[in-house]
Each structure stands twice: as structure tokens, then as C-alpha cells.
């Protein structure tokens, strides 16, 4: 997939437009930071781009792919995506692979080692710290087959070592994917030369 395009996109809740008349093209190799203060509409925009919520105006195009296959191209890490608390880590990774394969040649053990979580493979997700959960969400997005990476608040809850891991891994993927980072924390998108500020698309 080469391009993801918004044409005059608009989303409102009751009478309030969260964004309107938003036209933008995201391309492979040009990561974009979606910025704006708390409540501006960053998550609303990435949910619309992910096909999770509908637009009120305009349209979104993933090359010329039909909407019902978009999800196959997406890797998403976001605060509102829940992990299954009743699974152990290993069960979680096995379950994930039933609908989304890990990148070619990566085994479950390789995945756990890549996240430095192999010691915790039999621990229940409900007993994970918030930083461990965040790392697992990022890992699923980074190391699964996908072409569009949407990262909403990617380094929330993770420590300095986790941040360095994030920066190293995400930058390896930039040349190959369409990458969107929704954030109000500049250090998590230092590699983005382009910024889409939601406040520019208020009515
Ligand atoms: N389901 C909903 N129904 C009504 N209003 C909503 C809904 N979801 C979000 N909103 C409103 O849309 C606006 C944008 O919220 P959103 O979560 O997209 O902001 P954000 O920029 O991601 O904020 P933050 O930086 O705090 O995560 C807020 O005013 C929020 O209350």
C-alpha cells in the first residue's frame, strides 16, 4: 500500500465539529505526527482513519482498497485498545497470531525476546504493569504483518529504557510503512518531519 488519503474529512459529536474539511495524504516513508492539546481530536481522527468510527463528511481512501479489508493492513497501538486480561502473555501472543501473523520468520519466542518479556511468558496480562502492557501493544503493532502503523500515545507509561527500545524499533520501520503518531509528547515523534495539527481543522 502506497497512500492513505483523507478527502474533506469531517467528524462531529452532536453539534461540535472535532475536525472538518481535512484533506491530507499519508505516504510510505514520510511519518506524520498528529498533534493538538488534550481533547483536540487526535484519537478521534486516528479512530476514523482506522475505520473504527465513521466520518460525517468526506471520505478516506487506502489506495483503492475496499473498506472491509483495511483492517488487514493496519497495526494499531492505542490506549483504548484493550489486551485480554485473562490470558497469559504466551496465550495472548498465540491468540493474536490467529488473526494477525507475526512478521515472516518470527516465532512466539523470538517475539517475547524482542520485547525482553520472555521471563514473563506465563504471567497473566492482568498482573502486568501498565508499562509492560504498553510495550506488548507496541510489539504487536511493530512485529505483525501490516503496512500502516497507527500509534496513539506510543510511549505512555513506559520508562526510559522502553522509550529507547521504542525509538530504535519504530525507526527501523519508517522506510517501509505509512506511519502516523498521535501525540502531544514531542520526544515520541522527533523523526516526523510532517505534522498535522488538529487545531488547523476546526470550523
Ligand atoms: N464517543 C464520543 N461521544 C461524544 N464526544 C466524544 C466521543 N469521543 C470523543 N469525544 C469528544 O471529542 C473530543 C476529542 O476527543 P479525543 O479523544 O479525540 O481528543 P485527543 O486529542 O485524543 O485528546 P487527548 O490528548 O486527551 O488524548 C473531546 O471533546 C471528546 O470529549
Automatic annotation (TrEMBL):
This is ABC transporter related protein. Keywords: ATP-binding, Nucleotide-binding, Transport. InterPro entries: AAA+_ATPase, ABC_transporter-like_ATP-bd, ABC_Transporter_VariousFunc, P-loop_NTPase. It comes from the Bacteria. Pfam families: ABC_tran (PF00005). Residues 1-202 form the ABC transporter domain. One of its GO terms (molecular function) is ATP hydrolysis activity.
Amino acid at each position: 500500500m502506497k497512500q492513505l488519503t483523507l478527502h474533506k474529512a469531517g467528524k462531529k459529536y452532536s453539534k461540535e465539529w472535532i475536525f472538518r474539511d481535512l484533506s491530507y495524504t499519508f505516504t510510505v516513508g514520510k511519518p506524520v505526527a498528529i498533534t493538538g492539546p488534550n481533547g483536540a481530536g487526535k484519537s478521534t481522527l486516528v479512530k476514523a482513519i482506522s475505520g473504527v468510527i465513521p466520518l460525517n463528511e468526506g471520505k478516506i481512501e487506502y489506495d483503492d482498497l475496499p473498506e472491509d479489508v483495511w483492517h488487514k493492513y493496519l497495526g494499531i497501538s492505542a490506549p483504548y485498545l484493550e489486551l485480554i486480561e485473562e490470558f497469559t502473555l504466551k496465550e495472548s501472543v498465540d491468540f493474536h497470531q490467529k488473526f494477525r501473523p507475526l512478521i515472516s520468520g518470527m516465532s512466539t519466542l523470538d517475539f517475547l525476546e524482542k520485547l525482553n518479556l520472555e521471563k514473563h511468558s506465563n504471567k497473566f496480562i492482568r498482573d502486568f504493569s501498565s508499562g509492560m502492557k504498553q510495550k506488548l501493544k507496541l510489539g504487536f503493532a511493530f512485529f505483525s504483518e501490516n503496512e500502516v502503523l497507527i500509534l496513539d500515545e506510543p510511549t505512555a507509561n513506559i520508562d526510559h529504557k522502553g522509550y529507547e527500545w521504542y525509538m530504535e524499533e519504530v525507526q527501523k520501520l519508517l522506510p517501509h510503512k505509512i506511519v502516523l503518531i498521535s501525540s502531544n509528547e514531542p520526544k515520541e515523534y522527533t523523526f516526523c518531519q510532517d505534522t498535522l495539527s488538529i487545531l488547523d481543522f476546526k470550523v
